[in-house]
Structure formats: structure tokens, C-alpha cells
Amino acid sequence: MATTRRVLLCGMSLFFSGLQATLEATPGVDFQIVAPDPKCIWEAIIEWQPEVLILESALLQSEFSLTLMKDFPQLKLVGVDLEDNHLLVFSSRFSGKPTTSDLLQIIKG
Predict the structure, then answer these.
(1) In angstroms, rounded to a whole number, what is the distance separating the alpha carbons of residues 92 and 72?
(2) What is the CATH number of the domain that holds 61?
(3) 84: domain range?
(4) Which of 60, 76, 80, 81 could be 86's S-S partner, Cβ–Cβ 3.0 to 4.6 Å?
(5) From CA 77, how far away is CA 38, in angstroms rounded?
(6) Given pLDDT bands bounded at 50, 70 and 90, which one contains residue 36?
(7) Which pLDDT value is given to residue 43?
(8) Segments in 13-99 forming alpha helices (H)
């Protein structure tokens, strides 16, 4: 049985409409759309438990994203910057005690 990835979309631009159409045609991907509001995003993550959150980078570059990474370390955050045509991907992984080996692994990629 194939694994389904859950993706939460948070944006109202034309780009997100195109992304929605692409995801609808992509096997193995299930998605929901939520308003670009931290409270709505938070509730959707708790209720639906997506693996990926795609949102406009303005929300990603706030303290809100740090809180999300801390509280939902399994969640990949993808910020879409439509003005500068960039994608910002954040993924967090926490260990009990950070070691120099952990830091080197992060630095090396």
C-alpha cells in the first residue's frame, strides 16, 4: 500500500491555486487548504497532522514558525516567497542532548 503524504496549504494567491491543481493530480498526496491565520493553521495541524506545511514566507519568517518547529518537530515548513521567487524549507529535529556530532551533521547537510 502506498503512503499518502499530508500537505497543508496556507495561501490565497494564484500560485497556491496552481499548486492546488497540481496536488489534486498527484497520486499519494492529500491536502487541505487553510486561511493564512496562525490560529487556523495551528488548529489544522493539531486536527489533521500534516507532514508538510506550505505557506507564504511572511508567516514563515516570524516567531510563529519557530513555535511550530518546536511544537511539531516532524513538520516540514516550506515558505514561498512570490516576490523574490524563493522557496525556504525548514525542518526541525530535536535530540535530548545536542552534541558536536549533531551540529556537524547539520552543517554538512
Answers:
(1) 8
(2) 3.40.50.2300
(3) 5-108
(4) 81
(5) 13
(6) confident
(7) 96
(8) 14-24, 38-48, 57-60, 63-71
